[in-house]
Specification:
Mean pLDDT: 81
Low-confidence stretches: 10-43, 59-65, 489-495
Number of helices: 2
CATH class of the largest domain: Mainly Beta
Distance between the termini: 45 Å
Radius of gyration: 23 Å
Shape: globular
Structural class: mainly beta
Oligomer: single chain
Number of strands: 40
Largest sheet: 7 strands, mixed
Length: 533
């Protein structure tokens, strides 16, 4: 029998400080406010995660979000664990973003404007605390059109029934607007401009130019296309699931999507359909011209940043004013690496990533993400490593932890940045660099991290680690997740074995680097956080 365990690996001398590993509890799925099912990973579901959000079975993707009580609307195929164009809107609610109560689906195809599928969209809260949904429908002519729905009973805190606007669609491709009928989807959360008019962006494509088309309305029913898109970029292909929101300068607090002021920057995120990754840029919103101006110029794969360097797509943020601290929370769809055949065999596909708080970092040049505090409710048995000096080249087993579910928080104190090797300017691809410098290659500062889902003799494992390089006027952290040593423990031959990587630059000498890994059977989420001295 193969034993799953966690090892610490170090290939140079450093200080390990306050290393704490937390064994996670189960995620209970509740119905009607009562616990009725516990999805453990026994029997025929050895890889199903226990505290990521996912429906009991079949396909899911694309999160959409909340009102009052937390509401999660998501793309759902009720018939099979594969993608289908004829998807519906699943619906669950929560009071803590951890424990979820499933409800009947919010929307099925039922009008000519969505008869071939209720695709993704967003919730906007109108005055009077009235939520409405703008969503993409696939109409009888297989055109992508934009529809409106509202709760049947606004006083129902669970918003269990939704009514579609009888005059749908509100927006449709035609000979006048010349919008591509097969590339016109995913309306964002709308925001109010200074003129009192609503604005919304919808993803599109014109030839190979990606577009966030801007529309305006004074009543949320009648929309007109703006003279220019909010933003566009050549050679980026279809822009899916655009998300546009403000962030505060020098504050981790979130603000409403319609907020503005001198202490605000703006973020535009799009999901690049051609490569299936989520990219964002920080910039300025010119409210007079209704255009977004990225700080780094052109919005493309090379100049923009990614939310996540693993399987993470069709993400969506929302402003959480339910929490006293006020925060912006990021959700994202994790499409696992298993094959279609394997998905059909196990009966489910896709989960939501752990929700993350997101804010602008002190430099104002990138976003910071960290798991929401509520996730810590799931922690159970604690295993603690005291402060200690670890010799280079050592591998230390974390005794007492053999579970495949763990929340690992460990800090590394680095005393000599001078040992960092120089980053070759030609090393522009983090994934290739992680292949060249895998966990077995000793460097000046690194690698250091964890071997997880490891067999007893280390014949197989996943290495998650980082190493530090000296770049031009800054240090660069290379983060790697290497699944190439997985043989039989999890995915076997049916699953892609990958090396996932990212490069992050920082200017300060951060002697304390925190690594946090949440490991849930078939899914791992790795984060790194630096702390100024």
């Amino acid at each position: 029998m193969v034993v799953s365990c966690i090892w610490l690996m170090f290939f140079f001398s450093l200080f390990g400080y306050s290393g704490v590993l937390e064994l996670e509890g189960f995620h209970h799925v509740c119905r009607n406010g009562h616990q009725t099912a516990q999805y453990s990973n026994s029997g025929n579901q050895p890889y199903r995660t226990s505290y990521h959000f996912q429906p009991p079975n079949n396909w899911m993707n694309g999160p959409m979000l909340r009102f009052g009580i937390y509401h999660l609307f998501y793309q759902y195929n009720p018939k099979a664990a594969v993608w289908s164009s004829n998807v519906i809107w699943g619906h669950s609610t929560s009071t803590d973003l951890v424990n979820w109560t499933p409800h009947d689906p919010a929307m099925y195809p039922s009008q000519q404007s969505d008869i071939n599928g209720c695709w993704s969209g967003s919730v906007t809260i109108l005055p009077g605390d009235h939520p409405v949904i703008l969503y993409t429908g696939i109409d009888a002519e297989n055109r992508q059109v934009q529809n409106l729905a509202a709760p049947k009973n606004f006083s129902d805190p669970f918003l269990r029934e939704w009514v579609k606007f009888k005059h749908n669609p509100l927006l449709a491709p035609n000979s006048k607007n010349k919008i591509n009928a097969t590339c016109f989807r995913d309306p964002s959360t709308a925001w109010l401009g200074r003129d009192g008019n609503w604005r919304v962006i919808i993803g599109s494509q014109k030839k190979e130019r990606g577009l966030a088309i801007l529309f305006k309305s004074n009543d949320f029913f009648h929309w007109e296309e703006a003279e220019k898109p909010l933003c566009s970029a050549k050679d980026t292909g279809m822009w899916e699931c655009p998300d546009f929101y403000p962030v505060l300068i020098e504050s981790p607090l979130g603000i409403d999507t319609s907020s503005n002021g001198p202490d605000v920057r703006y973020v535009l995120k799009v999901s690049f359909f051609n490569i299936l990754h989520d990219y964002y840029m920080i910039g300025t919103y010119n409210k007079d011209k209704d255009i977004f101006i990225p700080d780094n110029g052109q919005f493309n794969e090379d100049s923009s940043m990614r939310y996540d360097y693993g399987k993470f797509y069709a993400s969506k943020t929302f402003f959480d004013n339910k929490n006293p601290l006020h925060r912006r929370i990021l959700w994202g769809w994790v499409n696992e690496s298993s094959s279609i055949i394997d998905d059909m065999k196990k009966g489910w596909s896709g989960v939501q990533a752990i929700p993350r708080s997101i804010w602008l970092d002190e430099s104002g040049k990138q976003l910071v993400q960290w798991p929401i505090k509520e996730i810590e409710k799931l922690r159970g048995t604690q295993i603690e490593l005291p402060y200690q000096v670890l010799s280079g080249g050592s591998v230390l087993e974390v005794s007492g932890l053999t579970a495949a579910q763990a929340d690992v928080v460990i800090s590394f104190e680095i005393s000599e940045f001078i040992k960092a090797e120089v980053l070759d300017p030609s090393w522009t691809n983090p994934q290739v660099l992680c292949s060249r410098k895998d966990a077995s290659v000793k460097g000046g500062l690194g690698p250091f991290g964890l071997l997880v889902l490891a067999s007893e003799g280390l014949q197989e494992y996943t290495a998650v680690f980082y190493r530090i390089f000296k770049g031009h006027n800054k240090y660069v952290v290379l983060m790697c997740s290497d699944q190439s040593r997985l043989i039989t423990l999890l995915w076997r031959a049916l699953v892609q074995k990958e090396r996932l990587a990212s490069q992050l630059g920082f200017i300060l000498h951060w002697p304390l680097m925190m690594l946090r890994l949440t490991c849930m059977f078939s899914i791992m989420e790795l984060r790194i956080l630096g702390s100024p001295d």
